[in-house]
Each structure stands twice: as structure tokens, then as C-alpha cells.
């Protein structure tokens, strides 16, 4: 008997985010293993079956090869047109949180552009893995255990179950077929009083049953679930489990169950169900949702100003239609940053666009709200990027911010290789002032790196991207979230220990080293080695580093947080009085009176010469979202996001 494959975790996303979480093994060869029928090792000597050359590391039984629905990426010849062939739209991506390759299962390592992401199905893979990923973008291949069509109705104490037909069941026998029957029961039922089953249909993966069962419910049955299972009958040994799903009697009472449902694993099936998509019904539902949404919009237009943010009138409301999106400035895990011109004006902004579906699926609803609250801080430091406004549509969140024409420090580091100590000193002084402000307002930044340090038109720095920030963290409070960019993360974060403001000062020490050396102090050939270096090794200094520079970097890179410079209650005084800053007038620096060493060369107001060409040459089109998913999304999660900054004009 062929063992039934493990089922994919039920998630809204079509592709697993972290292979290791699902397979339990980071060396598991392919995420498709969890999506299609398969198991065991690839047979030696197997070369071509049904046009599949097995050059993509996909493992499958030989007898299961007929069920492959995609063309092997290693085969250049044409194959059967029935095979799915939908190419992925790969985009080079910089990941700000630890992300695993959905092909090989290993961590996407590096500082920037660690891998590529499909704009359509959100698949994340290494650059060298993308050629091995099958072209099945957007295909629904999640019914690995098959599905069942049924009708269930509860009237009074009578429960009626119509088992109609099953499809795409798992081949359990050596002949590539199964002998399936459907078992029905109220779960839990130790006595077996409610157990019923259909007839067995032999040698069939798409059996038709058309059988009806009735249950007379007892008062003690009301808290139970209706459990539907499919089993493979075996003449000589125990019957084999193939799949299951279940319904609570409460949900059946609210509305009869009618349609196709996916079979899940035994553990999953006891607790929930997943309906299959029906294109015709989906379109009808979408039309109903659109009508309801139109009614909501009409109602909103009649609402008074009390329904709007406290500092926003109807006249001030910002909408996506107010902007012409010109170029792509950058990309991240949740969306894009676009250069935008406000219609009817000469105003130019950088607009950060985040997808709500990605935020919901990764359970990161607090990130955009935290970023908004940090950007909206009153009396903000001149070294933090300025927020103009926030608004939202049904499927996206928009941050309208000042456009820093000088690009980021990562871009300029690539041009110069490394900076002289005097140049690096200018930038780290202004970064320190930005961190002082954040910490004094109980904000832990957690994502200090070259990519997030922008230059304005005068050459002064602007700290950006507060999506990973944590608010309400005073100098005596801590958090434990594993968060940040690998090469800049403090040892206590990597060890899953509590950490506070001192974690930002570790990243600051890494930043000083990188600006002066042109490389990271603990970088290694892979992620695991980098982690090990951060926790165990000491930084090795190039000969051109001054004694003061080596001393302050060593103080910031102390392995124990309590021994780190800036860890005490008087962090500002401890840091500003260090000999490394002996020639710095901190009051002048705070007032932007220090002369920048590098003034960006700007030819016109839309000049993008300081931005990566790989981004600016891309189209500004926003990737379509799953309409069904968006219709079911709870918009209450984003209440309070819209905002207009009353200080923006006076700041800028």
C-alpha cells in the first residue's frame, strides 16, 4: 500500500510561507510534495515519465507520475497541453524578516535582495532555485486528498446527510486506484452509536454514491461535530485512512451545507472544513458583494465629518485617484514604494503601498498601525521621514510621505565602497539623534540598516520604514519578538531572549563598522554561520580604523546587553560624551547645521539617478488581489488608519 501523503496546512495563501513549518524538515526537497500525491524517494534511473524529466528535485512514486499537473522546469520540449503552465512573475525582493525558500526550504540569506518573490502567488525562493520551480502560478492544486460533494441539513432533531460523489481521491493501491467508502459519525462517539458508512466502490478515484443518511439527535449530541471520512477498503489488512473534514451542528443549523469540500488530514478533519471554489457561484457572490459595497459607499458619502479622522474634513480626504504613480522606488515584503505626483499640483511624494491580504495572511495587522503611529508623532525629529497622510482602499493601505531625492545609503555605499571616518561620523551622528528621539518616545526601532537610511536633497539623513518598530517600550521594558534584518540583529534576539533599547545600539555599532569598512562585521557564507558569528565571534578591525572608532564599536557590540554602550538610563549622555564624537557639536547637529559630506546631484524634481535601476524600470501596476479573499476580509482590522498630518506643511 502506498502511504497517504501529508496534507498542506489550511491557509488562505495558495503557497506555504515556510516549508520547515509544514514539513518539519528544512531539507525537505520541494513544497509541491505537500500539494500533490507523492511520497518516498525518487527512484534511481527514472528519466522521463509523461514529459517530466525530474530535474526540478520533485520526488514522487513512479506509479503516481500520471497525476503530475505541471511541466518539469528541466524539460524544454513541449508536453501535453493538459499540464498546467502558468509562469511565475519573479521580482527581486529584500526581506526584512526571516523568510524561507518555498522550494528548498532553507533560509533566504543576505542583507538585501536575498531572493525573488512571485507578484501573483507570493512564492518566495532563492535566486538559484527559481528555475526549478514548476510553472503553476495561481493553479489550484491544494486538493491533494480529493474532495466530496454533499448536502447536509438540520431540521429540529433530525440531521440529514446526502453523500453524492467524490473526486480526485488518493491512489492507495499498487494499481494506482483505490476502493473508497465514506464513513459518517457524530464526533466524538466512543460507543459507535452514530457510525454509518456508504457502500464500497472498488478501483475508483471518482466514485458516485448518491446515498442518504438520517440521524436522530439526542440532547447530548448538540455539542458534537459531524465527521465525514473517506477510507480505502482492504481485503487482507486494516482499512487505510484517506481524508476527512467535519462540521459543527451549530453551523449546519445556521445554513445547510451544500457543495464540494476538500478532504484534510485526520487531525485537521476533526476540527474544521475547507470548501472548494466554485467559479460560477463565486462570480454570483462577487456581484452581490459589489452591490453591497456600492451601497456602503453611497452611505459613507452621506456621513458627516464625525465619521472621518479627527483632523480630517471631507474636503481634505486623500484618495488613490488623487495621484499619478510615476515610477517604482523600491519593494518590500508587503508591497511597493512608488514615486507619485499629486494631480493638479507640482507636489511629489513617495507612496508606500501595502497589500491588506498579505498583512492578514502573515498575521501582521499591528505593523502598519505601529508605523503610522510612529510617523504621526508630534514634534518629530528632523531625521525621521515626514508623513503627509495615510489612506486606504478595499485591498491596500497607502502611506504618503516626503520624497527623499538622495536615495538610500546602501545605493551610495555601492558607489563608494566605503566611507572615510569623517564621512561615516556625519551620518552616524544624525542616526544617533534619530534613535535618541525614538527611544525617548518609547519606540524600539529594530530595523536599522543602510537600506532604511535615506538622504534628503541637502544630504541630511532621514530614517524610514517603521514597520518593524515596537512602541510602548521604555528604557526599562523589554520584548521577545524575533525581528529584524539578520546581519544587524543583536545576540539576545537570535537567542530568543528579552531585549530592549540596547538591541538598537547593537545595530548602530554594526552600522558604524559597515560604513567605515565597506562590509558587515559578522557576515558569513550562510545564515547559520552569520548567527554563530554574531553570538560567538568578535569583530575584526581593518588597519585604517582609529582607536576611538574601534573602542566605540566594541562598546556597542558587547554580547551582553547590560554591558553595551547605551544600555543604561543615561544612554544619550554616555554616547555623546564618547571620544569618538570629540569634535561633534551635538546642538549644531540637531539643528542640521553640520555640512553634509555628500550632496545628492539632482537634475530635476523627478530625477531618480540615486535609486536602483532594477526598481525604477519596473511598471507601477499594482498586483491584482484575490477578490473573494478581499470580500471576506474584516475591514475593522484597519479602522483608524486614515490620517492627515497637520504638521507636514510646516515641517516641509
Give keywords:
652 residues; alpha+beta; Wheat Germ Agglutinin (Isolectin 2), domain 1; Immunoglobulin-like; Phosphorylase Kinase, domain 1; 4 domains; 6-stranded antiparallel β-sheet; 4-stranded antiparallel β-sheet; 22% helix; disordered N terminus
Q: Could you outline the blueprint of secondary structure elements for this entry?
A:
Blueprint: H1 19-23, E1 90-93, E2 115-118, E3 124-125, E4 147-155, E5 158-167, E6 180-187, E7 196-197, E8 208-216, E9 225-232, E10 240-248, H2 249-254, E11 257-262, H3 266-269, H4 279-301, E12 323-331, E13 335-342, E14 348-355, H5 356-361, H6 366-375, E15 387-392, E16 396-402, H7 409-416, H8 421-440, E17 443-444, E18 453-455, E19 461-463, E20 470-471, H9 491-494, H10 502-517, H11 527-536, H12 547-556, H13 571-576, H14 586-590, H15 613-616, H16 627-631, E21 643-644, H17 648-651
Antiparallel strand pairs: 1-2, 2-3, 4-5, 4-11, 5-8, 6-7, 6-9, 9-10, 12-13, 13-14, 14-16, 15-16, 15-21, 17-20, 18-19
Helix pairs in contact: 8-10, 10-12
Q: How large, in whole angstroms, is the Cα Rg?
A: 29 Å
CATH class of the largest domain: Mainly Alpha
Q: Do you know the CATH architecture of the largest domain?
A: Orthogonal Bundle
The order of strands across the largest sheet is 12-13-14-16-15-21
The 3D shape can be described as elongated
Whole-number mean pLDDT: 80
Rounded to the nearest angstrom, the distance between the terminal CA atoms is: 71 Å
- Tell me the β content: 15-25%
Task: Give me the secondary-structure category.
Answer: alpha+beta
Number of helices: 17
Low-confidence segments: 1-54, 76-85, 297-311
Query: Which homologous superfamily in CATH is the superfamily of the largest domain?
Result: Transferase(Phosphotransferase) domain 1
- When the domains are counted, the total is 4
Please name the CATH topology of the largest domain: Transferase(Phosphotransferase), domain 1
InterPro entries: AGC-kinase_C, C1-like_sf, C2_dom, C2_domain_sf, DAG/PE-bd, Kinase-like_dom_sf, PKC_DAG/PE, Pkinase_C
Domain Protein kinase: 323-581
Domain AGC-kinase C-terminal: 582-652
Family: Belongs to the protein kinase superfamily. AGC Ser/Thr protein kinase family. PKC subfamily.
